[in-house]
Amino acid sequence: MSPAKYQTMGQQEGRRSWAEPWKIKMVEPIHMITREERQHALDEAGYNTFLLRSADVYIDLLTDSGTSAMSDRQWAGMMMGDESYAGSRNFYHLEDAIRSYYGYKHIVPTHQGRGAEQLISKALIQQGDTIPGNMYFTTTRLHQELAGGTFVDVIIDEAHDPSSLHPFKGNVDLNKLQAVIDKVGADNIPYVSLAGTVNMAGGQPVSMANAKELRAFCNQQGIRVYLDATRMVENAFFIQEREEGYANKSIAEILKEFCDLTDGAWMSAKKDNLVNIGGWLAVNHEDVFEKARNMVVIYEGLHTYGGMAGRDMEALAIGIEEMVDDHHVHARVEQVRYLGKLLTDWEIPIVVPAGGHAIFLNAKKFYAHIPQDHFPSQTLAAQLYLDSGVRSMERGIVSAGRNPETGENRYPALELTRLTIPRRVYTQAHMDVVAESVKNIFDSRAQTKGLKMIYEPAYLRFFQARFEPLR
Ligand code: P71
């Protein structure tokens, strides 16, 4: 018998194939507009993928935020919304879900992650304080700055190296943390801002061992630890896969164990929690809770809805129950990895190891001839859209913004373009189409020139900045 021509993914890797633990019961048609139409759309959008209309996008990998597909159970939950202004039963369901799966005592709902970031920053930060953390996130740092603080990066060096294969590139470097304490004093550090899977580093995890060391160290120094739990479930998956002693523990057990090492967390429920909108703050200390619960009524809404409808809170509570399913997390991360494997196999520079929520193209290497001032990551996102209607996101010099004190551009070591995979939305075939498009623009990279910024807003400039191609 002649050898078979086609091989499944599993066969290619010498194992049995696995599949997503769900089937599709409702679809949303998508289509690709013509190249001329894409060129027009890109011009209209000032070469910024945030300014494209989604109807002009074919495969949308801008973000995994609020873009997940909800389950039938979540949609059923939407019909059970208790839209009372105060004391909605859906809030109590949400409170129970957060207490059971994350383990924190007090819960304050918010409209999304940055609402919770504002509350925790305002509750804890005094003018002149320093907040060390494992790499900045745009909105997190901005709220820390607006509250009077200065963020200082204390992530391990490997996180800034796209080719380092360190299994836990999200880890905190305790020597760097000690140096910050020596410089500003522990009294001027309200908390360590710890993120589970570090978004800007490429979705890289923190090990349980590192979290334990950090906890012990902070206990000695009298500093609290608060967690950005936005993608902590994906972090739990990497611990289960890579850290000794965790292979036989469930995602739910690992999540709880990790959260127990922290004093509270803020959350963008639009990611791990599998909903299209929502967020929360959860803390163990009564004093912080009281402040946040009082402030939420100023900025978000009453403390039993915080900007969410009752039905949103119900879908969120159910999403929390679903997110810890080991098969779900496995399928989610493996899909991201599948895309990463294709690209690395074709020698296209990406951040390795592949992270939990996205593949990050290393634009510095991809467009080695384009200087950082000409926005290589932004250029890459624009080229990818032109080639195939695939939308991605700049995560480089545009996102890094300016130093608020000096007004100078920040030049981040990482100049990346993010292909972010929504949860339970796209198939392996979509990943193939994306990979081929990346390959196509990689093959013609020598002809590509960079961009010039022609409009720059004051805050979070990446959302609304406009560019023009350099000729
Ligand atoms: C993402 C987002 C959404 C986003 C935010 C800012 C710029 C571009 C896109 C949001 C996060 C996040 C982490 C680790 C807090 C937030 C804010 N991520 N922490 O990656 O990733 O949450 O969007 O619900 O307000 O596309 P929020």
How are the SSEs ordered, and which strands pair?
Blueprint: H1 9-12, H2 35-44, E1 59-60, H3 72-78, H4 89-101, E2 106-110, H5 113-124, E3 130-133, H6 138-146, E4 150-153, H7 174-184, E5 191-195, H8 208-221, E6 224-228, H9 232-242, H10 251-259, E7 264-268, E8 279-283, H11 286-299, H12 310-323, H13 326-345, E9 358-362, H14 363-366, H15 376-388, E10 390-391, E11 393-395, H16 397-400, E12 416-420, H17 428-443, E13 451-455, E14 466-469
Parallel strand pairs: 1-10, 3-4, 5-6, 6-7
Antiparallel strand pairs: 2-8, 7-8, 9-12, 11-12, 13-14
Bound molecules: ligand P71.
Ligand P71 binds at residues 63, 65, 112-114, 137-140, 195, 199, 228, 230, 268, 270, 279.
Provide structural commentary.
- The protein is an alpha/beta fold and 471 residues long.
- 39% of the residues lie in helices and 13% in strands.
- The strands form five sheets. It has a five-stranded mixed beta sheet, with helices on both faces. It has a three-stranded antiparallel beta sheet with strand order 9-12-11. Strands 1-10 form a two-stranded parallel sheet.
- The protein starts with 8 loop residues before the first helix and ends with a strand.
- Bound molecules: ligand P71.
- The site of ligand P71 has 16 residues, from α5 and α6.
